[in-house]
UniProtKB/TrEMBL annotation:
PANTHER family: ARABINOSE-BINDING PROTEIN-RELATED. It comes from bioreactor metagenome. This is Lipoprotein LipO. Coiled coil: none annotated. The keyword Lipoprotein applies. The lineage of its organism: unclassified sequences, metagenomes, ecological metagenomes. Gene3D superfamilies: Periplasmic binding protein-like II (3.40.190.10). Pfam families: SBP_bac_8 (PF13416). The keyword tRNA-binding does not apply. InterPro entries: Bact_solute-bd_prot1, SBP. Keywords: Lipoprotein.
Length: 445
């Protein structure tokens, strides 16, 4: 298909060991011709001068990739005006988070799926009264991967206008710790905890523990990621054959409504300085992106692995899983115009997962809020301070949640956060952002 025989090698799964192996590999001048790098790995190596400028080779042998990868993605792959990578963006802007609710419990109590924060609070209180032996809502289980806070539930946070770690406020990036509504969010969650409306084990729950409480019928609600849907609903059906689920993906509050979505680069595909085959590497990647090849490599053979009607792709099971389950990991860039529809076939291979995904993404345009920092490079102040600050914030917010710290100490804590590196992060993020929007404009769907 491509005319090249290719050998693939994997880095260790452990992130620290993977970085160590990558550094040794690059420093030793190994014979690898292509490196598939996470963004932080790419920015580190390109600053070290360890990667080849690909502009000449893309101009000569990259006609297809130049057409199917969007201009903004190419712009992000540049360093000092030169292209050192083929960007591989995320599959499509998606809503990933929701709150799953046992609809049968709602129906028996005469309750409707809440759409506002006030309705949500009322439903929690009604559930506690109707089912005193149940946990109205368990959580967090899967700690939100944007805020990295035990106390943060994306669907609830949206009602307070907190969608992302950083928010564009009149052209300036504001961290959620600087937003007055985050204090209100934290106070609200502490009320839920005090009233027994959320799991008393919230601070120590694990994902497995939350799932067990939900699928065993001990909890009525569970903050959900669509990747959790398959295992959870299968277990629920096993325990309660007639079970029905409903999903909340947005709650309207006085400060906002909606949840986070993102556009970003997942990987940068690069050629190390030591490779003598840069032109062949680009030609190989370009061939993979040609129309028929990309469809085959991604989904398989039409009529065997999938069916197609217009822009809709349906997997043929079980052969799709058997022969194309891991195909994503071999991609060297995607057709950014076609792949969003093609990728849905991967979700459709499991009806429970797709039902959850489709339900929470049905009104994406109305309730989705784009993470404007999705294309940010490694920011020095963020890299140096983020981990310690996240731990500091997580500890403080958990103490407020359980009542061992007063919400009245919030403003003083924010000052400590600022002096501990928060201000440095804000300043450097905004320096990048102002330059980014000057060059590219604001990111949109």
């Amino acid at each position: 298909m491509t005319g090249y025989k290719v050998e693939y090698f994997m880095l260790p799964q452990d992130a620290e060991k993977a970085d160590e192996k990558l550094n040794i590999t690059v420093a030793s001048g190994s014979e690898y011709d292509i490196l598939k790098l996470r963004p932080y790995q790419y920015y580190r190596l390109v600053k070290q001068g360890a990667l080849q400028d690909l502009d000449v080779y893309i101009a000569k042998s990259g006609q297809t990739m130049s057409q199917v990868i969007k201009p903004l993605s190419w712009e992000v792959a540049k360093y000092n005006g030169k292209t050192y990578a083929v960007p591989l963006s995320n599959e499509r802007p998606n809503i990933a988070n929701s709150i799953a609710i046992r609809k049968d419990f709602l129906d028996q109590a005469g309750l409707a799926v809440p759409t506002t924060l006030d309705e949500f609070t009322a439903v929690l209180r009604a559930l506690k009264k109707a089912y005193p032996d149940k946990i109205p809502m368990t959580g967090p289980g899967r700690v939100d991967q944007q805020m990295f806070l035990n106390v943060f539930v994306p669907v609830i946070g949206g009602a307070f206008g907190i969608y992302n770690e950083w928010t564009d406020v009149n052209g300036t990036l504001v961290h959620y710790m600087q937003m007055p509504s985050f204090k209100n969010y934290l106070a609200y969650m502490s009320v839920l905890y005090k009233e027994g409306l959320i799991d008393i084990d919230w601070p120590i729950n694990t994902l497995a523990g939350c799932n067990e409480k939900f699928v065993s019928g001990k909890a009525v609600m569970d903050p959900y990621h669509y990747n959790d849907a398959t295992a959870n609903f299968t277990a629920l059906k096993g325990n309660f054959p007639n079970v029905e689920l409903a999903y909340v993906n947005a709650l309207k509050g006085s400060d906002g409504e909606g949840v986070r979505i993102e556009r970003k680069i997942n990987y940068f595909i690069c050629v190390p300085k030591s490779s003598p085959n840069a032109e062949h590497a680009v030609r190989f990647m370009d061939t993979m992106l040609k129309y028929e090849n990309f469809e085959f490599l991604t989904l398989g053979k039409e009529g065997v692995h999938f069916t197609k009607q217009g822009n809709s792709f349906e997997p043929i099971m079980p052969i799709f899983n058997e022969e194309r389950f891991w195909s994503y990991w071999y991609l060297m860039g995607i057709d950014e115009y076609r792949y969003p529809d093609m990728w849905l076939a991967r979700i459709k291979k499991d009806p429970y997962q797709y039902a959850n995904f489709e339900a929470i993404n049905r009104n994406l345009a109305q309730v989705g809020h784009l993470d404007v920092t999705g294309f940010a490079p490694t920011i020095e102040a963020v890299a140096n301070n983020q981990q310690a600050l996240r731990k500091m914030v997580d500890d403080f917010t958990v103490r407020v949640l359980v009542g061992t710290e007063s919400i009245n100490n919030f403003d003083a804590f924010v000052e400590r956060w600022r002096k501990s590196g928060g201000d440095d992060m804000v300043n450097q993020m905004n320096a990048w952002y102002q330059n980014f929007i000057k060059t590219n404009g604001k990111v949109t769907l």
